[in-house]
Design brief:
Blueprint (H helix, E strand, L loop, with lengths): L4 E6 L6 E6 L7 E4 H5 L7 H23 L6 E13 L2 E14 L5 H14 L1 H6 L4 E8 L1
Parallel strand pairs: 5-6
Antiparallel strand pairs: 1-2, 2-3, 4-5
Length: about 140
């Protein structure tokens, strides 16, 4: 399986602008710029897209882990916060914090916590950051 995305940029770093598109068409010529990345401009940015990818990946992995424990979630809601800081090496994603709230009928706290930790470690986006970026998790049954 291979997924693709593309970016087009015109101009200098601060005065230029670009667009991002995905193979699926979900993002199609979506605007991004210096302002959307380092300020509060309208559009997207790579870090926001990474946060969305990690939230989606973790949530699917959690559903799979719960299924392996014979539990079916009624709902799983996850947000991801990407910390993007200037370091000696340059701008770097230094941490990602996942927050998930779950309704899982019949799940014990311990079974849910085990599933959540396994999902955090096992989701492909988490594995991408392993050894480079701290990934933390706040997972609770509601």
């Amino acid at each position: 399986m291979e997924r693709t995305a593309s970016a087009v940029w015109s101009g200098g770093l601060k005065d230029g602008k670009g667009t991002i598109s995905t193979q699926s068409g979900t993002l199609q010529n979506t605007q991004y710029s210096f302002g959307t990345r380092f300020e509060n401009g309208t559009g997207t940015n790579p870090e926001e897209l990474i946060a969305a990818a990690h939230a989606g990946c973790f949530t699917m992995a959690l559903s799979a882990q719960l299924g392996q424990a014979n539990l079916t979630p009624e709902s799983l809601e996850t947000s991801a916060s990407v910390k993007f800081e200037k370091t000696d090496a340059g701008f770097t994603i230094t941490a990602i914090h996942l927050v998930t709230r779950a309704k899982v009928p019949g799940a014990s706290e311990s079974a849910f916590e085990a599933a959540a930790q396994n999902a955090k470690v096992g989701c492909p986006i988490s594995r991408l950051f392993k050894g480079n970026t701290e990934v933390s998790l706040d997972a609770k049954l509601v």
